[in-house]
Design a protein that fits this description.
Elements (H helix, E strand, L loop, with lengths): L2 H13 L4 H13 L1 H19 L7 H10 L8 H8 L1 H23 L4 E4 L6 E3 L2 E4 L4 E3 L2 E4 L2 E4 L2 E3 L2 E4 L2 E2 L7 E2 L3 E4 L2 H19 L1
Parallel strand pairs: 3-6, 4-7, 5-8, 6-9, 7-10, 8-11
Antiparallel strand pairs: 1-5, 2-3
Pfam families: zf-HC2
Family: Belongs to the zinc-associated anti-sigma factor (ZAS) superfamily. Anti-sigma-W factor family.
Keywords: Membrane, Transmembrane, Transmembrane helix
């Protein structure tokens, strides 16, 4: 064994990290090499001295100083405490706010003319004017957005006019369901909410 290897093994031996075979080789080298033997004895005394020294406790004023230097814990805001105590109500309120804001945004952005219904075969569309002709029968609901509506025939369902105009019903007109004229964002939001929950109830 070379001296540089022996020096490295001395530290491992004192730490208890050498295998039995390596210990035998190190002991043999220390018997044959006076220089390494002397170095090992000095290292052994230093190690023993370090292990015998008691660990000094830090002075109390130092720990007090460290604790005072730490930032004080921030008190949670009142609304965060309420949210933690009422998670269900918080989730419901957040859902309503998000839903209403999305509906209002849709109201502000939706300026396109559209017609929807189950039976549009007998519905006449002229530009932005929707006509149910006299003598014709439209089955199901009819919804018109950003347009004018004139009913001369039969509508077997609800009529909803959003941000548009409904002409006075002709004497030949017949609407089996309800007539809803929505001109304001609040009414439109309520219409969308009731339609949304009505769709959920119908789907379940």
């Amino acid at each position: 064994m070379k001296c540089n290897v022996a020096v490295m093994n001395m530290h491992d031996y004192l730490d208890g990290d050498l295998s039995r075979e390596e210990i035998i080789q190190l002991q043999q080298h220390l018997r044959d090499c006076p220089s390494c033997h002397t170095r090992y004895e000095a290292l052994e005394r230093t190690d023993a001295l370090a292990k015998c020294q008691p660990i000094e406790k830090a002075p109390e004023y130092l720990s007090d100083r460290v604790m005072k230097s730490l930032p004080s814990p921030r008190r949670p805001a009142a609304w965060t405490t309420w949210v933690r105590r009422h998670p269900a109500m918080s989730a419901a309120a957040l859902f309503i706010v998000v839903m209403l804001s999305s509906f209002v945004s849709m109201w502000n952005q939706s300026q396109e003319f559209s017609v929807s219904g189950q039976d549009l075969e007998h519905v006449v569309i002229q530009g932005k004017k929707v006509i149910v002709p006299e003598g014709q029968k439209v089955n199901g609901d009819l919804t018109v957005v950003n347009g004018d509506v004139q009913v001369l025939g039969d509508l077997e369902g609800n009529l909803t006019v959003i941000d548009g105009n409904l002409s006075p019903l002709a004497s030949t007109a017949h609407i089996a369901g309800q007539i809803k004229t929505i001109d304001r964002a609040v009414d439109w939001v309520w219409y969308k909410v009731s339609s949304y929950f009505g769709t959920l109830a119908y789907g379940s």
